[in-house]
Specification:
Blueprint lengths: L2 H19 L4 H9 L13 H6 L14 H9 L15 E4 L2 E4 L12 H12 L20 H11 L7 E3 L2 E2 L9 H4 L2 H9 L17 H12 L8
Antiparallel strand pairs: 1-2, 3-4
Helix pairs in contact: 2-5, 4-5, 6-9, 8-9
Length: 231
């Protein structure tokens, strides 16, 4: 009688072996699919020349930047986050009506299957970057009226010169931010606004030197932007 459960366990493990053997390997996917364009460990070269030449944003701190569920969905159906690509001047053309994004010049991101996207996202979430790059709990959730937040974003701090906080409204050179709360972790939003050069030493994003009150207000406004069609 005592041998039956053991035999059943062995049979169950044997039956599951093919599925386990075929499970997606997140680290292998990152190496094959992501490493050609993204840094998966902190680069030794942090020069302006490297920033100019890189094909995609660094991912060595993806685990403290992105929300995992967003990653899973985005990797299956990637869409542009920066309207003009990783570096604005490489993907725009001049017209009599002003600069426009040259869509044909923008590289396409590979699509992953659901299983591969889940495995890759899990592997990305394990990449935390250097200690204290993002301080956990620095973001303090608070209610910020949408009108006040939008005025702060668009008028008082000039964020709209480079970013959109609603579709088709704002700049093209920086990432779209109307779904920032869905894509990004709140502590990362806070940390990046506070000191963008901590993440990219030569990035053109200015350090705004905001008071703690204003920093929290702007971070909370962006963290509340969850919907790509937000108004």
């Amino acid at each position: 009688m005592g041998r039956i459960p053991i035999l059943l366990c062995v049979a169950a493990l044997t039956a599951a072996a093919p599925a386990l053997a075929g499970a997606a390997d997140g680290d292998a996917i990152l190496k094959q699919q992501c490493a050609p364009c993204h840094a998966l460990s902190k680069p030794s070269d942090l020069s302006l020349e490297r920033l100019w030449k890189r094909k995609g944003p660094d991912l060595y701190y993806a685990g403290v930047k992105f929300n995992q569920q967003w990653l899973v969905q985005w990797l299956q159906n990637p869409a542009r986050i920066r309207p003009a690509g990783e570096f604005y001047f490489k993907h725009v053309k001049m017209t009599p009506g002003g600069d426009i994004v040259d869509i044909a010049a923008l590289p396409r991101h590979p699509r992953l299957s659901k299983a591969d996207a889940e495995a890759a996202a899990a592997a990305l979430m394990a990449l935390k970057g250097p200690d204290a790059m993002v301080s956990k709990g620095a973001f303090k959730k608070q209610a910020v009226p949408a009108l006040i937040g939008a005025m702060f974003f668009e008028k008082l701090r000039g964020c709209a010169a480079c970013h959109m906080d609603k579709p088709n409204s704002g700049g093209l050179s920086g990432p779209e931010l109307y779904d920032a709360g869905k894509r990004l972790q709140p502590d990362y939003i806070y940390a990046y606004i506070k000191a963008p050069q901590r993440f990219d030493p030569h990035i053109w994003m200015p350090q705004l030197d905001l008071s703690e009150t204003d920093l929290q207000r702007l971070a909370n406004y962006l963290a509340a932007r969850q919907d790509a069609a937000a108004k």
